[in-house]
Amino acid sequence: MNIVVLEGQVNNPGDLSWDALDRFGTVTVYDRTSRDQLKTRVAEADIVVSSKTEWNVEALGWAPRLKMIALTSTGYNVVDLDAARDAGVIVSNVPAYSTPDVAQMTFALLLELCLHVGEHSNLVMEGDWTRAKDFSFWSTPLVELAGKTMGIVGMGSIGQAVCRIARAFGMPVVFENRSAKPQLESDGVRQVSLNELLAVAGLVREDVFIANVLKCRPPGNRDPRPEEIELCTPYLREQTRTIDPEFLVTLGNFSTKFILKTDIGITRLHGTVQRAGKFKVFPIFHPAAALYDGSKREALENDFATLGELLRASEAERAAEAAAKAAEPPHVEQPPLL
Q1: How far apart are the first and last CA of the chain?
Q2: Edge-to-edge strands, sheet with 90-92
Q3: Fewest beta carbons within 10 Å, which of 6, 80, 284, 294?
Q4: What is the DSSP secondary structure assignment for residue 140, as one 8-state letter?
Q5: Which range has the worst mean pLDDT, 7-16, 174-183, 198-207, 309-318?
Q6: How far is it, in rounded angstroms, from Cα 53 to Cα 66?
């Protein structure tokens, strides 16, 4: 049995061992594998261990002996499951390995928003505290989590882990879930509807319309294919016409490229006002991107702040127009001259 590890570096940079796999067969470990190298490296493989390597019909054809793809990730959208099934290849993933890490990252980001520890540390090191007139020094308001209500959408394993940490901080928790989960309710934790959850965040459901480019989730949560997007386009267009929003906020690459009919990615377009017909379009990084890539967090925060400013400015403009119209003298119809 030939076992090939294609992306060893990301899972084991040297502090772990692959020896446990030796009893199953001959193990070959590569730190990284490019697309150009893949064909040669999997030609004799019975089992491959990989993370982000794309397994489409072409790649599966390069591995005629392949019996199993063992993913070291939770997501399996990198594998064409239909093609793997047709080839008789088993696909496995690791569903819950990152639950504690994601919950921890959630609060790392939340605490940074509340306390701006990094910014404060830099200012102290630069001498701003020493030069301050008062003993108490801060550059931004300090927000205390105790007593603040946390809203969680989806009470799966990650939602439950976040909930436990929130309660330890003294935060009441409300959660929304597709199915009832009364067993998770307790003192300080209760299930609510989506409308109630939005109200906790200061939003009214009637002001928010959430839609997807695709109207159903692709198998394996993979990326949507062009033909699937095309099939769903009439529904999205009709939704947009019916709602008639002032702003379309596109989250991530797929919705941005689809709405703007462009190949330019979200990295270049985020935080800018674009046009799609009569609609103002404001592209923003998908919130999930900031969770997995901390470097995008600041951009995401800034973009949402800009969006808020745009909405307030637009509301003020409409109010000014209405006031000006109300101040106009009434139009008096002049009688015709004889």
Answers
A1: 107
A2: 26-29, 2-5, 47-50, 68-71, 90-92
A3: 294
A4: S
A5: 198-207
A6: 15
**CB atoms closer than 10 angstroms to residue 10:** 14
Cβ atoms of 47 and 71 closer than 8 Å = no
CB 248 within 8 A of CB 203: no
How confident is the model over 182-209, as a mean pLDDT? Answer: 76
* DSSP per position, 182-201: GGG-BTTEEE--HHHHHHHT
At 56, the amino acid letter reads N
Measured distance CA(156)–CA(15) in Å, rounded: 31
User: Cβ(26)–Cβ(45) under 8 Å?
Assistant: no
Task: Using a pLDDT cut of 70, give the percent of the chain over it.
Answer: 92
d(C-alpha 263, C-alpha 135), whole Å: 53
* Environment class of 222 (CB within 10 Å of its CB; exposed 0-12, middle 13-18, buried 19+): middle
Residue 256 contacts residue 263 (beta carbons within 8 Å): no
Among 11-20, 39-48, 64-73, 313-322, the minimum mean pLDDT is found in 313-322
**Burial profile 325-337: b = 16 or more Cβ within 10 angstroms, e = fewer:** eeeeeeeeeeeee
Q: Which helix (H) or strand (E) holds 120?
A: helix 117-125
Q: For 220-233, what is each residue's pLDDT tens digit?
A: 667 788 888 888 88
Name the residue among 74, 69, 72, 71 with its Cα closest to residue 59.
Answer: 69
* CB neighbourhood size of 107 (10 A): 16
Calculate the alpha carbon distances from 334 to 329, 331, 337 in Å. Answer: 14, 9, 9
- Give me the mean pLDDT over the 89-100 stretch: 91
Locate 177 and state its tokens: 């879930």
Q: What is the mean pLDDT of the chain?
A: 87
User: Crossing angle, helix 99-115 and helix 117-125, to 10 degrees?
Assistant: 50
